Every structure is written in structure tokens, then in C-alpha cells.
Amino acid sequence: MELKLKTKRLVDQPTYKEAAQELEKLHAALVKIQTRIAEIDGEVVRRGSPAAADSNHVAAALAFAETGVVAVPRAEVAGLHEERSMLAQQAEAVRSAIAVRSEACNTLVAELGAQACREAESAHNDLCVRYLQALRALDALHEEEVQFHRAIESLGYSASFRTPVQWYQVGRISDGTSLMATQVREFQAYGR
């Protein structure tokens, strides 16, 4: 039996699409921020070495000698530290936003899933009723097999069939604590 639901697939739900797109944008922003932080870290290491600092000043001095114009060496490491600090704060804010949006998205998915389950509840209840009927029919087959055993044993023989119908691990409804009895109790609520 194929179940036809009116509920749209999750990926086709407008609210989910919007939430997923927003999360995607936040993740992309975080990747860009983290990439720039890594670039800054590399630049700081490069500029932080004495040879790099000297080369900046040497390049400025050579430019002055050729042009007569005083050139200011490239931005010092302090500006990069400030940029990195600002980016780190932004990265933390984006991570926090991702966490909040992810939780909201998970809640949305749970709500949409619950909606789909409510829509299918009646059909599922019918399935449970049919399952309960099948369990009772199976128990009746087990009882028939018990009657075969009793009939053979009443003749003074031991009854041993090659392929027994009853699966002893499942038990019987009348056992009270067997797996079958437990399932019957659980599914009887749907039969009412």
C-alpha cells in the first residue's frame, strides 16, 4: 500500500528552503572570514621576520634614491592584528548565528515531520488494527498446533514436527509476558 500525503517533501517546503539558504550564506561567510584570518596570519609571520621588515625599509630607501620621494614602508603588522581581531569577532558572531539558525532549522524539521505524521496518523492507526488482527490470527494458528500436539500425545506418542509453526521466542498472547502478548497490549489502544 502506498501512502499519499499532502505534505510536501522537506526540500520543497518554502520555510525550510529559506532556512537552509540562510545557513548556507552564513557558512560561506565564515569560510571567507577564516580564509582571510589565515592569510593575515601568514602575512604577520612573513612581515614579522627581521628580513621582511628590513626589506620593506630597503625597498623604501631604494625608491627614495631613484625618485627623490620619501616612500612609507608598507603597513606594519599592527594594522593586520587589528584586522585579524575584528575578523575573529565577526567569525565568532557568525558561528553563534549558525548555531541559532541550525537549532531553528532542526526545530522546523521536527515540526514539519510531526505535521506529516499527524497527516498519516489515521492510516497508521488502521495499519495497527490490521497488525493486531494478524497477531491474533497467528496466535490462533499456534493454538491449532497445540491441538495437534495434544491429539498425538493423547495416543501415547511424543509429538515432534519437523517445522513447528510456533516460534517460542515470540510466545503466545495467553503467556501475558511474551513478546506477542506485549505487542497485543500495545496495539489494542488502536483497536478501540
Topology:
Elements: H1 14-48, H2 50-67, H3 77-154, H4 179-191
Helix pairs in contact: 1-3, 3-4
Question: How does this structure look, described?
Answer:
The chain has 192 residues and is an all-alpha fold. It has one domain. Helix content is 75%, strand content 0%. It has 4 helices and no strands. It has helices spanning 14-48, 50-67, 77-154, 179-191. Helix 1 packs across helix 3 and helix 3 (77-154) crosses helix 4. The two termini are 23 Å apart. The model has no long low-confidence stretch (mean pLDDT 84).
Tags for this entry?
192 residues; mainly alpha
Summarize the structure.
Helices cover 75% and strands 0% of the residues. By secondary structure, it is an all-alpha fold.
Taking all Cα atoms into account, the compactness measure Rg is 37 Å
Which assembly state applies to the chains in this document? single chain
- For the secondary structure, the number of strands is 0
Give the count of helical stretches. 4
Kindly report how far apart the N and C termini lie. 23 Å
